[in-house]
Amino acid sequence: MATIGTFSRTAEGFSGSVKTLTLNVKSVKFVPTEGESENGPAFRIFTGTTEFGAAWEKKSDKGNYYLSVKLDDPSFPAPIYASLVADGEDMALIWSRRRAAD
Asked: Could you tell me if 65 and 59 are in contact, meaning their C-beta atoms sit under 8 angstroms apart?
C-alpha cells in the first residue's frame, strides 16, 4: 500500500493533491454528484475543469466508511484504483496493487 494523495474536507467535498512517480496533480477536487444515479458514484473527481475519476461510498468489514476511487485518463496505461480513508483530521488516498485472479 502507498499513500498517493492527501486531502482535506471542504464544504463541497474534498480537496487535495495526487502524486506518484509519474503523476503530480496539485489541485484535485471531489465534487458530490447529488444523487445523479442510484448506483452511480457519490463524487466526480476533477482537476480544473477536467474530470479524471469518480468515487463510490463504501463500508469496510470493520464498519469504517471510505471512498472507493477510480482515476483514469487516456495518458494512463491503466486506471488507478485507490481508497480515500480518514487519516486523523485529513484524508489519505491509499493505492495498492490489485491481486491477480487465481
From this structure: yes
